[in-house]
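Human: We require from you a standard protein entry with sequence in single-letter code and fold as tokens, and nothing else.

Assistant:
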Amino acid sequence: MNRKLYGYFDYAAATPMLPKAVEAMIPYLSEEFFNASALYLSAKKNKHAIEAVRQKIAKGIGAKPLEVIFTAGGTEANNLAIHGVMQKFPDGHMIASTIEHDSVLAPAQKYNHSIIQVDSSGFVSVEAIKKIIKPTTVLISVMYANNEIGTIQPIYEISRFVEEMRKKRKEEGNNYPLYFHTDACQATNYLDLQVSRLGVDLLSINAGKMYGPKQCGALFVKTGVTISPLLLGGGQELNLRSGTENISAIVAFGVSWDEVRSNYQQEADRVTQLRNKLIDELLQRIPGCSLNGPKEKKRIANNVHITINGIDNERLLMELDESGFMVASGSACNASNDEPSHVLKAIGLNDEQARSSIRITIGKYTEYKAMQELVDSIIQNIPKK
């Protein structure tokens, strides 16, 4: 294993592509370059390659192939879900949690919306939703697993509440639909994705978080859910995502999907054991170190988020980088923003505590020895009092 991969502890930001996924892309970047919408045989073969991946993902989540729309990653999938529903119902209302990814919170700002507050571990409760839902609410968006503090949300409980509200509206003669969307981009490597069990109407996936190519993802849209397209043009992806398909990335997505989802439960168990050892080492060896987010079972398998009193997280990150270790201060999408994480503020941390926090995420290539060396390096780089 090369040194960069050995010292990589930011799997929530990006995962290294599987070699077999890289290999699968190559033909479609060279001799099989044809536009899948063309009518000649070589183009039709490319269309078949896309549809094979669509069927694979649909089967993997318990959906119909026509319910899977390919996108340019998780951000576009989230935007398509939010804008797609809300543009259909311009007088409608939506709800999102305060710790959603910015690709949910930013589009929500365009519409009549309310924000669900969370508890100190980052959990959304059905009771909190009940307090802010309106007769005109058409969309609830709650992420499956948080990208910063790892909180696994009670998706099943929320979906049962949504179903109860639908029945109540029918009895009351309220014709507004109520859809439930979840951003599952951080969940795909470790959690159940069966949409019927989750009870969701829309679900976002990001290939770049599951050892596939960046700028490739998918949105599950349940049959009967009506949404507007973001991109207009040639009508690809059932008229919901126009533009020439990124065949090489979609094919590679299919390869990474097979690899990850075929043994996700075993991998979750393996990574969880590593994560727990890392948490124990950090809490035992570093004075003033505390864990942010939930404990064990309600935390995504690969996430460790800590506050170390008195440190400057940006300085520590740079020093760790010089020592060969890559960790994060929060969401990579906000790395250039000087504002403290909205997620950490939502769970009650003040600005100083937020700026003293780091996120460590592990994955497929993480070794126990590397974790021990990371902890040693953190200790060495904490300012001596």
The chain has a mean pLDDT of 94. The chain is about 40% helix and 10% strand. Residues 264-285 form the longest helix (22 residues).
